[in-house]
């Protein structure tokens, strides 16, 4: 599954995630593109294609990093939470 910038924004809104950086209060974040297992990133997509099999076999944690554009603070989100929410949203939409 690929997560678009729009998906990420909708997810954060639904979860009540605050926009401000916990260190400096700035609300400007950039998503650091991260390569999926195949190493490819398509234009307009932030990250990342993950297989459950890879996680189970290697205890690998798929993370989505965001960087504060003012102070450089780095935050991480476990992508399974995002993917689960997106799947439930898409299933509810039919
Ligand atoms: Zn900051």
Give a verbal description of the structure:
It is a single chain. The protein has helices at 5-15, 52-58, 79-92, and strands at residues 3-4, 29-31, 45-47, 63-68, 74-78. With 94 residues, the protein is α+β, with helices and mostly antiparallel strands. The protein has one domain. The strands form two sheets. The chain has a three-stranded antiparallel sheet with strand order 2-4-5. Strands 1-3 form a two-stranded antiparallel sheet. Residues 40-51 have low confidence and may be disordered. Bound molecules: zinc ion (ZN). The site of zinc ion has 8 residues, from loops.
Task: Give the arrangement of secondary structure elements.
Blueprint: E1 3-4, H1 5-15, E2 29-31, E3 45-47, H2 52-58, E4 63-68, E5 74-78, H3 79-92
Antiparallel strand pairs: 1-3, 2-4, 4-5
């Amino acid at each position: 599954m690929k997560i678009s910038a729009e998906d990420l924004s909708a997810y954060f809104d639904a979860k009540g995630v605050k926009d401000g950086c916990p260190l400096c209060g700035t609300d400007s974040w950039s998503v650091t593109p991260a390569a999926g297992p195949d190493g490819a990133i398509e234009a307009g997509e932030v990250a990342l294609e993950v297989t459950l099999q890879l996680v189970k076999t290697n205890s690998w944690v798929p993370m989505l990093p965001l960087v504060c554009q003012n102070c450089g603070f780095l935050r991480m989100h476990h992508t399974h939470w995002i993917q689960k929410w997106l799947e439930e949203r898409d299933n509810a939409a039919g």
